[in-house]
Amino acid sequence: MTLKRFSLLLLSSLLISVACLVMAIYYFFYLPGINAEVVDQQQQEYILLKAAFSASAKNLTTLSFDYAVWDSLVEFVAQPSDEFIENNLLPNAFEVANVDAVFIHKADQQLVWQYLDSSITESASVLRGFVEGKTKTNTDTLLPSLAEISAQIASTRHGYYVIAGQLFYVTNTTILPSEGKGEIAGSITMARLVDKEMIDEITGYSMVKFAIDNMSNSTADPLPSNDFFSQDQLKVVNASHSWLIRNKFDDQAVVITVHHRKTSSPKLDAVSVVLLLLIITMIVTFSMMMLSRFLISPLIHFNNNINDSSNDNLMTKVPSQHFIDEIDNVSNSFNQLLIRFAEQQNYLETLTVQDALTEITNRRGLEAFADNAITAWHQQESGFSVMMIDIDHFKLYNDRHDHLAGDKALVDVACCLMETMACYNALVARYGGEEFCVIVQDDKMESITHVAERLRNAVESLHIKHDVDGTLWLTVSIGGVVVPKLFEHAEQYLFHDVLKQADKQLYIAKKTGRNKVVLNVFK
Ligand SMILES: Nc1nc2c(ncn2[C@@H]2O[C@H](COP(=O)(O)OP(=O)(O)OP(=O)(O)O)[C@@H](O)[C@H]2O)c(=O)[nH]1
After folding, report:
1. What backbone torsions phi and psi does residue 520 show, to the nearest 5 degrees?
2. Given 285, 309, 344, which residue is the final one in a domain?
3. Does 401 sit in the ligand 1 pocket, CB within 6 Å?
4. pTM of the full predicted structure?
């Protein structure tokens, strides 16, 4: 797999992983937390509403109790008088206290006095019948029973009732002297219609939006009971929560519905999802750019470099300054390796053009040098000279001494030739066996003759003992040609032709006595 493909794969897997991670965090951590918060807030609203209902009811209960323990009322129940009614049971006072109906009964459940607000005149008789237990549904009574009265059990009872299709909060308290000394005189019942005014009052207390729906006439399937006043725990988030309140005869009466402020847990919509994915993509792309810039690019660079060098033998160093230390180290190691590789390559190249025994240029190196000389000659830039140098009677030398001594003599002669030619623009090469070749960038017969004589002399002066043909020392014969710069149809001739003529001169030198120089002009 290529690095580019790998980085693409990495990018896509990163994108998918981060997206999955974000979704997992959203669904498993964020959403449940928010959900719990919303449930909690809805629970608060429910508790506030319940408290507001109680607070509103408490006013009526307290008022009813205040009247019930008022000694003057005890006397009034025993002996009703218009004067007491005119002075104390004022409709305005009940109106201000938001009381819609008041019934004062004697201990034997005889009605003594009643007050009915104009708003409930239609349901007034039903309400009274309900209180006294005379309605169709109400066989029981809200008044204290005769048994309770005779047992002198003081009581208060209150609750919500649907009466004539309207919801009332009704409270009943036994009337008895304030000191508690004396018999129960009767009971006072106060009723308040749960109307818009009261709903506004409860809403004002609780700041919670709610509705009360009358269910007494509903023909719909009965709803499961869930008591608004005693239930305490909300479990799930809903736009609204409803409670069915049944009356004391277990008929469904009203439904109280709280309309919650926060209606649902936040959900990811399409725009948010796109935005989220965009942000994730940007983050991941930025990370990938960093990764690519600081990690993948250097690796691609290395790879290209290695590919280039293997294609065309060109070795280039890679930049050694990187953001990541490890990449820096790899670069430095790579560059070091490159240097060692180049050194090795040079060494190997040298070996291919170097004679193993004498360590001077071999025939291959000679040919490369000769190519340059020939090219320059073909282009009439310069002439040159070639000398073939052959050790005299070397077979005999080997035979007299041994092969190793022959090797040493060869090395000494090579060194001597190199030293002698050191100050010339020339190449000394071992041509093969005991034969050497010298190419000099000079085409003047006089100077070449001088150079050749110097070479011959230098070898003889080595004084390598070799007593043959009347000489005491090892000698060389030199045959050579001078190739002038300007030569007609030079381009038709190759180095091989020059070499052949030099060889011919060497042959002459050998034949005519050895230890001598024979030169000629190339023709
Ligand atoms: N020791 C040694 N001898 C070599 C090497 N290369 C060639 N020779 C010997 O050089 C000798 C050359 O002998 P010939 O070609 O007969 O010529 P020569 O004896 O020098 O006689 P002339 O050239 O006519 O003077 C042979 O005996 C080769 O074995 C080498 O690398 N080391």
Report:
1. -150, 165
2. 344
3. no
4. 0.48
